[in-house]
Design goal:
This protein is an alpha/beta fold. Helices cover 28% and strands 26% of the residues.
């Protein structure tokens, strides 16, 4: 019979039996000075754990300790496991590897974007994948997207009413959104509004995505059902969201490292209502996590004047209360899942030891691999197989205007004035050949990209918003060589010079994700970033540039499956060409 509840009746009886002394706890944390969020202070207690659950917190010690690991926590500080409320676990890393890395820094609960699962897998495979991940120590919850965040072919099939409702009803899905499709909603899309109504009927949250939104827009979105937004970039924008009743998620990510500025401006405006704040890294690129995940955000908060207990609350109990799972997460109390971080000092939020679902994943500074291995091909993430070849005929450029990068992710149109009929472009300017081509080889769209690089000969990437292939470069032969090497790898990001690969990141999981541990991927990404900067890339994050070239939730011009798209006018300017 399907297990509908977290703990079966027999397990609950066992939990009670530990209190009666007929069963031994599995772990006893003695003399623990822990953060009690009910009393808002540090208190000392003994914490009894049975398997994955805290069964008692108080002054007493268990009668039966026959099968109990006893840990004296004197001199340490204990806090709940941290929660990342807005994770994008497919940014070259994968959900499994990112969870393993995050847990080493104390982040033991992730609330994840389902975009890649919705676009790359049918829902049966996707739900099977989610269930497999549930067997690991890190707790994972998910969102349900309402749109593809770009103009894709057959969107009405991928985001059908049946598919979206099935996602919303899944027990591991805790919210709808993020609402990158809010302009469609504002323009009268009643299907999105219906899904929002369904989300609220299921007592789940709706995450906004409202960069630069006016007071009126924020008010309308609140009326439609939005609960939280992570797009505030100034203290005034935080205040504006609070005034309209939003929970505010303060962001610190690779393309928007805003947390120090936000906190300083919040304090200047005297709106430090910490119980209405969470913190998120918003799916940063791999190298950004070198100093930690949510632990680093707690450290920044403390350094910028947030009271210590509030800084921890913003990463734990505030998130749990917001998502209505305080009975499981966010505090150290009887009945909660045993996610506990053991700190050397409350001023240093990076733990020396970590319990996730009652299992040690880090002990005295040493990593313990408690995660179950995944059979990736069985889960639907095999190496990318492409049975077609890229030819010179695919690299014909005759577009009257190109795409100009304003920063890592914002792109505008510009008039092309250079000769693009040759095989090689000059390194005296920052314009490159730019192609998006269907991963199945059915269509392509060619233009020129200004601002990405001055001396990049050929780059191919299967990492993109939709999993289609991006080609950028000065030299068509090197673009083809990079494509061929990427194909040989089974997916990835490859740069070539003189027909030879000089940098590569293999992405053998559907061409989108790496199977490598995050620490290895971090080194690979750093080498690529250094190389691209040497070739003239001048912005913050090339990984996000590749991801967002086709993302229509950002202005102004995007390259999509349907063609070159004007976001403001919502029209396809130049359609894709069938091969």
């Amino acid at each position: 019979m399907e297990q509908r509840y977290r703990w079966k009746n027999k397990q609950l009886r066992n939990h009670a039996a530990v209190l009666d002394g007929t069963l031994s706890p599995t772990i006893l944390l003695k003399n623990a000075t822990y953060l009690n969020q009910t009393f808002r202070k540090w208190m000392t207690a003994n914490i009894w754990i049975y398997n994955d659950r805290i069964v008692y917190v108080g002054e007493n010690l268990p009668e039966n300790t026959q099968r109990c690991e006893i840990v004296d926590c004197a001199g340490m500080k204990l806090v709940p496991g941290y929660i990342e409320p807005h994770a994008h676990p497919f940014q070259l890393y994968n959900p499994h590897s990112f969870a393993a890395y995050a847990s080493q820094t104390g982040t033991t609960t992730l609330i994840n974007d389902n975009m890649v699962l919705a676009l790359q897998l049918d829902k049966k495979k996707a739900f099977s994948f989610i269930n497999e991940l549930n067997d690991n120590p890190v707790t994972m919850y998910w969102w349900s997207r309402f749109d593809a965040q770009t103009e894709i072919q057959h969107e009405e099939e991928v985001f059908s009413n049946g598919n979206v409702r099935a996602w919303l009803e899944h027990e591991n899905v805790v919210q709808g959104g993020e609402l990158t499709c809010w302009p469609k909603l504002m323009n009268g899309d009643d299907m999105i509004l219906h899904w929002m109504q369904e989300t609220k009927r299921l007592h789940k949250k709706i995450e906004g995505h409202f960069p630069g939104a006016s007071e009126k827009t924020l008010a309308k979105m609140m009326l439609f059902g939005a609960d939280c937004d992570h797009e505030a970039m100034t203290g005034e924008e935080v205040r504006r969201r609070l005034m309209q009743g939003y929970m505010v998620s303060l962001r610190h990510s690779s393309i928007r490292p805003d947390l120090p500025k936000l906190l300083d401006e919040i304090h200047e405006l005297d709106i430090a209502v910490y119980d209405r704040f969470m913190m998120t890294t918003d799916g940063a690129s791999t190298a950004f996590y070198e100093n930690g995940v949510i632990d680093e955000l707690i450290r920044i908060a403390i350094d910028h004047g947030v009271p210590v207990i509030d800084a921890y609350n913003m990463a734990t109990i505030n998130v749990a209360r917001y998502y209505n799972f305080e009975h499981l997460h966010g505090n150290i109390a009887t009945g909660r899942i045993a996610n506990i971080n053991i700190l050397s000092d409350e001023m240093n939020p990076t733990p020396v030891s970590v319990l996730a679902k009652g299992q040690w994943v880090k002990r005295d500074g040493e990593a313990i691999d408690a995660a179950k291995e995944l059979n990736w091909p069985e889960m639907g993430f095999a190496p990318l197989k492409m049975d077609w070849d890229l030819t010179m005929d695919d690299l014909q450029f005759s577009m009257p205007f190109g795409i100009k990068m304003e920063n890592s992710v914002i792109t505008k149109p510009y008039s092309i004035s250079i000769d693009v009929s040759e095989e090689q472009l000059s390194s005296k300017h920052d314009e490159c050949f730019f192609t998006l081509i269907d991963r199945n080889g059915n269509w392509r769209i060619n233009t020129v990209l200004k601002g990405f690089a001055t001396d990049l000969q050929g780059l191919a990437s299967s990492f993109s918003n939709t999993g289609d292939i991006i080609l950028i470069g000065k030299n068509k032969q090197d673009m083809i060589a990079a494509f061929n090497r990427m194909k040989e790898l089974g997916g990835g990001i490859v740069a070539c010079e003189n027909g030879i690969p000089v940098r590569e990141i293999p992405l053998r999981l559907q061409g989108i994700m790496s199977s490598h541990p995050v620490t290895e991927l971090m080194a690979e990404e750093k080498h690529l970033l250094e190389y691209l900067k040497d070739k003239g890339y001048k912005f913050a994050d090339p990984i996000y540039s590749l991801l967002f070239f086709s993302s229509t939730h950002l202005p102004y011009i995007r390259i999509t499956q349907q063609g070159i798209y004007d976001v403001m006018k919502k029209t396809v300017l130049f359609p894709t060409i069938m091969r």
